[in-house]
Request: fold
Amino acid sequence: MTQNRTFTPDQVARYARHLILPEVGGAGQRKLLNSSVLLLGAGGLGSPAAMYLAAAGVGKIGIVDFDTVDASNLQRQLLHGHDDIGRPKVESAAETLRSLNPDVEVVAINEHLNSETALRIFAPYDVIVDGTDNFPTRYLANDAAHFLAKPLVHGSIFRFEGRLALFDSAKGTGCYRCLFPEPPPPGSVQSCAEAGVFGVLPRIIGSMMVFETIKYLLDIGRPMVGRYLLFEGEDM
Reply:
């Protein structure tokens, strides 16, 4: 990381397009390099989110996932390649991100996110980015972030549809459970494995999640706080 020192020549070249943006500049890029983001899931949404967070120079990225790479993932999960099939997703993800940007510290957390582990895993990070694909984990992530007063960037995808929001409980802006008090009954909503997902959709929504994360970290523009975005890819 680059706290209290100038950028290296390699960093000046790497982050040149950020450094010339008045809204980012040297101070903003240094803040990114000293920021930490926890990414929940290294799958469809997690893949593009992780890659853009790393490319932007977020200094510490934690990735939580307890799954392994499957051939069916490769249609949309660009963190992983054919040779990664069978590997833990967090290992494949960490290898890709370290190759993409050596400035970034990648923490691979290959364990279940549950009520016993969530607070411990969340605690060291500035922002939580939720790319999980099931309702129990989504509500758990919301409750843990709310309890710790940490901002939570939420994204979800289904078929051709995506959703995006930023919840910042520390500022009294409500949370995911405020919008949807209870999860749907088990089995009442199809999963992406059952209904499918358009291959490019995760990249669109995952990139927007990173956009909101970086805006929040650098206090740029108007954040998604208090709003809920619905993206209808079939009817743009």
Observations:
- The domain at 19-168+197-235 is CATH 3.40.50.720 (Rossmann fold).
